[in-house]
Amino acid sequence: MKRVMIAAPASGSGKTLMTCALLRLLARRGLDPASFKCGPDYIDPMFHRRVLGIPGGNLDSFFSDEDEIRSIISRSAHEYAVIEGVMGIYDGITVSGVQAAGSSPDMRGSCYDIARITDTPVVLVMDVKGMGQTMTSLIKGILSDDTYGLIKGIILNRISPQYYRKISPLISGCIPEDVNLLGGIPSSSDIHLESRHLGLVMPHEISDMTSQIDAASDLLEKHIDMDALMSIMGECSTCEPAVSGNITDHSRHVTDPDPQGTAPVIAVARDEAFCFYYEENLHSLENAGISILEFSPLHDSSVPPEADGILLGGGYPELYADRLSANTSMKDSVRQAIENGMPGLAECGGFMYLLDTLTDQEGRSWPMCGVIRGDSHYTGRLGRFGYIDISFPDGLKVKGHEFHYFDSDNNGTDAHAVKPGGHAEWDCIHADKGHIWGYPHLWYDSCPEIILQLKEEMIRYGQFKQVF
Which of 20, 111, 348, 369 is labelled catalytic? Predict the structure, then answer.
């Protein structure tokens, strides 16, 4: 697969816009590209999906080992791919943690680590608005830490054509010969992706999203040396796992515990309020023999009658609290199904939906499903942000991530979360054999037993439904 990673010195540099523009440009050329996102992000892959019409995958070196990451790339049937970076190019686990004095930074979770693992060339996008010769110092500093020589191109973002012509000889003179200064993108008042407390505004909320991406791809084609960029994309290896067949994606090798061979059905909430899902998690469910059926807590009146289990993902329930609260038939259906024994998973926003109430940012309290006693409320700051290792009393361990500005007065005590490095820990999650409900987003392949248990409980519940 020919591929490139779009990275930057910091968040807000234009990675998402540049990635979407490049994906659009490749699609215009009939190259049928795929997309990936570094790290545990949900929203950026939605922008990729809006551009391509296909889901975007996540590559994360905290969640997955190196062979698993390579296998995600190698399984793709696409000839071209664009990988969007996360935060600053070298920002990994130690960004959100505490680094012990004298210890080396933990690069896991950084886009540079993903580029190293997958042997992907990197194009560095730099927002240089308001910057002069200092940009050369910044470039030289970033290149000095490029241990594996992966940075192959530089794009200057938000720079006038006149100043680009003036500064480009100076920059070209301070970078190695194998690093291409690909061009400069001028500012455009017609292109702007807004943000909110969990990241970018959702793609469906931007009425002119398509025209913005088209305009950005036009700018890219006009101001960037696309021949050089395509050449960089062609410098990749095949990205196969280190040992042939050594793909530790256990969910693809489990024994089907259903003797009848009938796939149980999990109802997955998918609408404006609930839309944060790792595509690899959904693949894990399907590969474990679970059939996915989507439904909308906002728009539908009940949980699908075919459902043997339920998955309530994250999202922005606080933005739709009035409508979720007003849909009493759906709330009653969810509560009744769970009270009748329907197993399932609820993560972050989905967990908030199961509580008694949700108090929004204006202080208004909205009744939710009432499955779990308690309220969720806005705190104005990130709570327990970052990667975590989660342990359950039965010995199961799963990797997860938290990223939320809301919190609850009843987060659960049935599991224990520990930050990488052990500098912080806390109890969390409401769980038994049939359900896991809490703020953490889980990476299912880090503990395939969780999915096997869920499937067994779904089969049992399905048999119960047939009797009653």
Answer: 348
